[in-house]
């Protein structure tokens, strides 16, 4: 859902899978695998800020969003391991996703 790619996408050939694609790009290149429309919505909100304090809040917000995206993609990777026994259990997944939501909503507002 976050990459806007299907496991059957034509880019996944020669052993490359959606799982490997996300795992390889995680951390250093998370922005390159995330659906651009998700990032565009974030950038629109940031573009409306122009003061120095707003710019510093904007940077902090971008950093927060990047960290949350990394966490969410990590959850997806853990849920899509090839062998079912290697996948995360749903209670753990739910706990991790709730932590992402709590981080996202920490300041009492949803980041749009």
Structural description of this entry:
It is built from five helices and no strands. It has 112 residues and is mostly helical. The mean pLDDT is 79.
Outline the secondary-structure elements.
Elements: H1 18-25, H2 30-33, H3 36-47, H4 52-79, H5 90-104
Helix pairs in contact: 1-4, 4-5
Write a brief caption for the model.
With 112 residues, this protein is mainly alpha-helical.
Give the fraction of residues assigned to helices. 55-70%
Rounded mean pLDDT is: 79
Uncertain residue segments: none
Rg over alpha carbons: 16 Å
Name the helix and strand elements from N-terminus to C-terminus, one letter apiece.
HHHHH
List its salient traits.
single chain, mainly alpha, flat
């Amino acid at each position: 859902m976050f990459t806007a790619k299907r496991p059957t996408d034509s880019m996944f050939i020669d052993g490359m899978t959606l799982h490997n694609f996300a795992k390889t790009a995680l951390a250093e290149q998370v922005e390159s695998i995330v659906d651009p429309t998700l990032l565009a919505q974030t950038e629109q909100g940031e573009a409306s800020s122009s003061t120095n304090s707003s710019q510093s809040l904007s940077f902090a917000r971008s950093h927060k969003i990047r960290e949350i995206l990394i966490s969410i993609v990590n959850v997806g990777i853990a849920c899509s391991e090839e062998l079912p026994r290697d996948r995360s259990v749903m209670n753990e997944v739910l706990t991790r996703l709730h932590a992402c939501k709590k981080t996202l909503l920490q300041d009492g507002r949803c980041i749009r």
